[in-house]
Design goal:
about 150 residues; about 65% helix; mainly alpha
Length: about 150
């Protein structure tokens, strides 16, 4: 069988229809493009999802959710195709990234309020009462006990 007959034989087999975004043509199955862009878009969406979930899981660290959430948001935006809506994974990555960043900001604000409250002399009697009930010592004694004297 020569090359012409072999090609004719393979072209005679009916091929199933290909999905719209497969990067292949319907008639002869040759690639229109390499598909690298489709893979990179999926990779960006996956990276967005990973960074978003990481920013939620690491929100208790304070500062880590902000850069992780920003990277997740950036990758979600990069995963969006031209003139097409964002994929489900890209949208989920965007949502989880934003939730992680908001949780990180709330944790940072809470820690800043606690530090401000600890060094404000007007709130010291309130803290002393809380620490006396919880630990049996004043706030200043507790801080010395854990190795952070206030003086």
């Amino acid at each position: 069988m020569d090359d012409y007959e072999r090609n004719d034989f393979y072209n005679a087999i009916e091929q199933p229809p290909l999905p719209q975004d497969s990067g292949m043509t319907q008639d002869n199955g040759t690639p229109q493009d390499s598909g690298v862009q489709t893979r990179s878009i999926r990779g960006f969406a996956l990276a967005s999802m990973i960074f978003g979930v990481s920013s939620i899981l690491l929100c208790c660290t304070g500062l880590l959710p902000l850069p992780l959430g920003a990277l997740g948001t950036l990758f979600a935006i990069l995963s969006r195709r031209r003139a097409k809506p964002m994929s489900g994974m890209g949208a989920a990555g965007m949502v989880t990234s934003i939730i992680g960043m908001v949780m990180g900001i709330v944790i940072i604000a809470y820690l800043a309020a606690m530090v401000a409250m600890a060094f404000n002399p007007d709130t010291r009697p309130y803290l002393d009462r809380i620490y006396q009930n919880a630990y049996g010592m004043t706030f200043e004694e507790f801080m010395e006990y854990v190795g952070y004297p206030l003086e």
